[in-house]
UniProtKB/TrEMBL annotation:
<feature type="transmembrane region" description="Helical">
    <location>
        <begin position="20"/>
        <end position="43"/>
    </location>
</feature>
<feature type="transmembrane region" description="Helical">
    <location>
        <begin position="313"/>
        <end position="341"/>
    </location>
</feature>
<keyword id="KW-1133">Transmembrane helix</keyword>
<feature type="transmembrane region" description="Helical">
    <location>
        <begin position="270"/>
        <end position="293"/>
    </location>
</feature>
<keyword id="KW-1003">Cell membrane</keyword>
<keyword id="KW-0472">Membrane</keyword>
<keyword id="KW-0812">Transmembrane</keyword>
<dbReference type="InterPro" id="IPR003838">
    <property type="entry name" value="ABC3_permease_C"/>
</dbReference>
<feature type="domain" description="ABC3 transporter permease C-terminal">
    <location>
        <begin position="271"/>
        <end position="394"/>
    </location>
</feature>
<dbReference type="GO" id="GO:0005886">
    <property type="term" value="C:plasma membrane"/>
</dbReference>
<dbReference type="InterPro" id="IPR025857">
    <property type="entry name" value="MacB_PCD"/>
</dbReference>
<dbReference type="InterPro" id="IPR051125">
    <property type="entry name" value="ABC-4/HrtB_transporter"/>
</dbReference>
<dbReference type="Pfam" id="PF12704">
    <property type="entry name" value="MacB_PCD"/>
</dbReference>
<protein>
    <submittedName>
        <fullName>Permease</fullName>
    </submittedName>
</protein>
<feature type="domain" description="MacB-like periplasmic core">
    <location>
        <begin position="22"/>
        <end position="241"/>
    </location>
</feature>
<dbReference type="Pfam" id="PF02687">
    <property type="entry name" value="FtsX"/>
</dbReference>
<feature type="transmembrane region" description="Helical">
    <location>
        <begin position="362"/>
        <end position="387"/>
    </location>
</feature>
């Protein structure tokens, strides 16, 4: 019996014999895996972007003019171009606050037009090379040099390459390099230049641009702060707001925690929906295999009578269930990928959250996990019916199947 019968081939033939029923069971598994895969990959990509983007930002606190907190959060998380200004002497006041280790100014400029890249909302960000700890480390590591006043660095989503020349407000700049993707539009859709370059551009715009830029060296937009060891960002934020009038200090943890709260809500929703769908799939497949066992009692009895062991019957039914589950899992992965690709843009636009596709290793781990879950679904749903069929007496099985 064991030499003459290939259990797995026999199981596949049985699956093909009941096409409609097998298709419904495959679809049940596919719905579960598609939902779980798409949702998990989406959440993982947002968490990946937060991790990398927060590391690149390098700041514990973002100090902005009072009343512009929401604009600053939108700029940081969604990369929405914005412009707001405060006095440049704010930087020295912030540096004097207890607990501040490093402080560096930035200037935010929202371009009125950018003809070469009309599909991207480009955000101009000027930094101080002497004190910066966000862009300068990348320059030192990647370009091995500083940035001159006629050069810019672009984010990965800005559709231009190194060596191109681009005009802003009547001043032409050469692209010195393109940063690697972070998933945060604050970096990926931004153009970085030095503070001196931004002030010179603003001055030149009065004669070179149809839309002059009214900014001078007495203005900055924000101050990025790193706190000293032994101090918490929350504690230093309170001190900054107390000691420096007219500003709002946003701890990066506060900004990121808002996103994490949204993600926790999404995760709970995904777990609940997936659990419900998985239980329904288990019940559906368990009921189907109970019917299959009852319909095929005579077949199982005959197999036992010609030498099949109990574990042969058990393997046969479980193999059928696993074949159905594996097919459903593969279809679910393909369907989940299609769903995510189709609706990702809409979701990101409505939620205004960062997004960066995970590494190949993480993606493979997720795919393997989904396949294992689909196989587990088939195994669990068919285990009890398979065990019952394997325990029945051959003679009684033949009699009941007549």
């Amino acid at each position: 019996m064991t030499r003459g019968l290939n259990i797995y081939l026999f199981a596949l033939r049985n699956v093909k014999r009941k096409v409609v029923r097998s298709t419904l069971l495959v679809l049940a598994v596919a719905v579960v895996t598609a939902t779980l895969f798409a949702a998990t990959l989406f959440i993982t990509s947002m968490q990946n972007a937060l991790k990398i983007g927060t590391y690149r930002l390098g700041a514990d606190i973002l100090v902005v003019p009072e009343g512009n907190e929401q604009q600053a959060k939108s700029a940081l998380l969604a990369g929405e171009p914005t412009s707001f200004y405060m006095s440049a002497d704010t930087i020295e006041k912030v540096r004097a606050v207890e607990g501040v280790n490093k402080a560096s100014p930035q200037l935010f400029i929202k371009p009125s037009s950018f003809t070469c890249c009309y599909n991207v909302d480009v955000f101009l960000i000027a930094f101080d090379p002497g004190t910066d700890f966000t862009v300068t480390p990348w320059l030192e590591k990647t370009l091995k040099k500083g940035l001159s006043d006629d050069e810019i660095i672009t984010g990965r989503e800005v559709p231009i390459v190194a060596g191109d020349s681009i005009p802003f407000f009547g001043t032409s700049f050469r692209v010195a390099g393109t940063m690697e993707p972070t998933g945060m539009k604050f970096f990926d859709q931004s153009v970085f230049m030095t503070m001196d370059a931004a002030y010179k551009m603003a001055e030149a715009s009065k004669t070179k641009s149809m839309q002059p830029l009214n900014i001078d060296s007495s203005k900055i937009s924000a101050v990025l702060v790193q706190v000293e060891e032994g101090y918490t960002p929350d504690r230093v934020s309170i001190r900054i707001e107390h000691d420096v009038s007219g500003v709002k200090a946003l701890a990066s943890d506060e900004v990121i925690s808002t996103v994490r709260k949204q993600l926790r809500g999404l995760v709970k929703g995904v777990i609940i929906i997936s659990a419900i769908l998985w239980i329904l799939a288990l019940l559906m497949m368990g009921f189907a295999f109970s019917m299959i066992v009852n319909e095929r009692l005579r077949e199982f009895g005959l197999l036992r009578s010609i030498g099949a062991k109990r574990w042969h019957i058990l393997r046969l039914i479980l193999s059928e269930a696993m074949a159905i589950s594996l097919t459903g899992g593969i279809i679910g992965l393909a369907a989940g990928s299609f769903i995510l690709r189709s609706f990702k843009g809409i979701l990101l636009q409505s939620m205004k959250l960062p997004y960066l596709f995970p590494s190949t290793e993480v993606l493979m781990e997720l795919i393997v996990g989904i396949i294992l879950l689909s196989l587990l679904t088939g195994f669990v749903s068919a285990l009890l019916p398979a065990y019952s069929a394997s325990r029945i007496d051959p003679y009684m099985a033949i009699r009941k199947g007549e």
